[in-house]
TrEMBL record:
Free-text function comment from the UniProt entry: The glycine cleavage system catalyzes the degradation of glycine. The P protein binds the alpha-amino group of glycine through its pyridoxal phosphate cofactor; CO(2) is released and the remaining methylamine moiety is then transferred to the lipoamide cofactor of the H protein.
Assigned EC number: 1.4.4.2
Protein name as annotated: glycine dehydrogenase (aminomethyl-transferring)
Species assigned in the record: Hyphomonas atlantica
Glycine dehydrogenase C-terminal domain boundaries: 382-481
Keyword Lyase in record: no
Amino acid sequence: MTMNTQGRPTSPVSAANQSVDTVSGSKGLLQAEGLIFEIGTQDTTGVDLPTPKNRTGRLGGVARKQPTGLPGLSEPQTVRHYMRLSQKNYAIDLGLFPLGSCTMKHNPRLNEKLARLPGFADIHPLQPQATVQGALELIDELATWLKTLTGMPAVAMSPKAGAHGEFCGMMAIRQALVARGEAEARKRVLVPASAHGTNPATAVQCGFIVDEIKANARGRVDMESLKAKLEKTDDIAGIMLTNPNTCGLFETDIKEIADLIHAAGGYFYCDGANFNAIVGRVRPGDLGVDAMHINLHKTFSTPHGGGGPGSGPTVLSDALAPYAPVPFVVKDEDGVFRLVEDMEGDAKESFGRMVAFHGQMGMFVRALTYMLSHGADGLKQASEDAVLNANYIQARLKSVMTPAFEGYCMHEALFSDAFTADGIETIDIAKSLIDEGYHPMTMYFPLVVHGAMLIEPTESESKAELDRFCDSLESIARRAAQGDETLKGAPYLAPMRRLDETQAARKPVLKWTQPDANSVAAE
C-alpha cells in the first residue's frame, strides 16, 4: 500500500513520539538554522581582497575606526541561510491560507509577468507626463472598472493600503463637514463592536470620537442600539461599517442603516476589506455608501501579507467626490492623460495630498490584469465560489465545531470554542493545525465571539483541498472536545516549539548579543 493511499494518523499516541531529536537539529528535509550572527564570524568575510597600495581614503575623519559587528559569510552560506529561512515560512503557494478577513487568494502568474513589463516596472515617478501616457491610461481604465463594480462616480487612486484608504475616506468626510461649516459640531462616528481595529483608529486619527454599536444575536448591527445612538443627531459625522461584516455575514439592514445615517446628517463609510465576497453581485453605491476603500492586494490578486506592497483606492459618492485628494488622472479632449496636482479648478475643494506620488503602479497593473483576464462574469463567479467554499467548510465542520451564528455565511465561516472540553483553549487548536501543515485561521477575532476561529478559504481552493483541510481540523476538534491534553503541547513538528507568547510580546529580544566566551567554556 502506498503512502498516498495509506495516509498517516493525525492523533499522536503520546507527546513523546511527536518530537524527534537529531544530532544536527534538522528534521528530514527541514534544515536547522541559527541566526546569521551564529553562522558567520566577525573576523572573516566572504571575499578576501588585498589592501589597495598607494591609496589614501577619501572619508577623512568619518572613516570607520571600529568593527561593524557584522558576520562574514561565503556565498553558499548566505544562499543556504535565506533558503532555509524561506522553508520555515508558510505561503499561499504552499497550501491553503485560511486567515479570516484577510482574503489570502492565489496570485495568477500572468499578473506578475505583466507587472514586470519595463514600461510599467521601470518608470520613474518624476518622469514627464508625456512619457508615461500608457501608465496614466492604465490607471484611468482601472479607475473605470472600480467605479463600475461599486456603482460609485469617483475614485481616489493614491491610497497605498487598506488603512490608508480608510484614512482617505474619512478625510473626505471631514472635509465635507468643513465645507458645511459643521466640522467642529459633528465629531461622533458610529463603529460596530465587530469592526476591524483600523476603523476606530482611523476615526480617531481624523479627529473624530468613536461611539460603539452593539451586535445582535444574529451577528449583525443591533438596530435598536443604532437608533438609540441617533436620538441625538446634531453631532453625528457618520458610520464606519464593514459589509459583509467581520463575522462573515451580510448586513441585511444595510439600506436602512444608510438612510438613518443620512437623515441624521452623517456620511456612510464602508470598509471594503471583504469586497471579495460581493464583487459582481452587489454594488455598494446602490446601498447608500458614501466612501469605501478597496484592497487591490486582496480582492484583485496582489501579493498580500508579510508587509508586502498594498494599494487601497477609495471610491466616493457624489456627495464626497469634490473633496477627493490630489493628484488624480484626467483625460483631455485631445486624448492626452494628465495628473491634476494643484488644488484649483476641479480640485479646489480637495482635502489635499496624501502621498508624494500617485498610488502603487505595480498593484495597478496586477489588478487590471486580473480584471481583464477574468472579465465581468469571471469576477462574479470568483465571488460566488468564495462564498460557496466558506459555506462548504461551515457545513463540513458544524457537526464537530460550533458555528458562531445560525444560517449561511458569506465568504468566511466563523466558529466559537463552545465545543471544546474544559482546559482546552482556542490557541491549542491553532498550534495543532501547524502540525497538520496549515497556517492557523484567524483566532480570537472578532472579539464579539468567545474563542473565535474565523476561516476564509477564498475561491482559490478546490473541493479536494478543502476536504483535506476539514479532515485535519475535524480530527483536532474531536480531540479538543474529548479533552486530549496532548493538544496543549503542540506544535511538535514545527522548527520551534510553543513559545511563551505573553513574555515574547512584553519582553522581546530584539538584539543579538555575543555570548560570553568564559561562560560558554564553563558550560
